[in-house]
Amino acid sequence: MNIACHRTPRKLRQHLLRTICCIVLTQCDAHISRRGQQRIQVIESLAAPRFIYDCHYLSGGRSDRYVLLNIVAGKPRSAEQKRATYRVLSERLQQRLNLDPNDLMIIIQQTQPEDWSFSSGKMLDLGMIV
């Protein structure tokens, strides 16, 4: 999972990112059958010149609180699973962080097992997962 947002004061940023991570992991467990032990996250808090986006593209208007979630999924999920994930993440982030739904973009990228090597240059074999 990759989370990108604008740079905010350090204390607020730590709380914001920790809360986003917790909500995302909980909802992915509930809606897209994420394996609970997996926790690989890339979190970026970027200054304005490094975080460029269109404030109005397919949105009611984004602010400087804009958050981009990019979730990489190793197995196919149904449209219903994805729809529920998008809806619930938007609701939870609005409830917990007062994040305007227009300030949230979510991308779910689906991959195949052969697209992964977790270590030692070995291609993932589903038999490796217990």
TrEMBL record:
InterPro entries in the cross-refs: Tauto_MSAD, Tautomerase/MIF_sf
PANTHER family per UniProt: TAUTOMERASE YOLI-RELATED (PTHR38460:SF1)
UniProt name for this protein: Tautomerase family protein
Native source species: Pantoea leporis
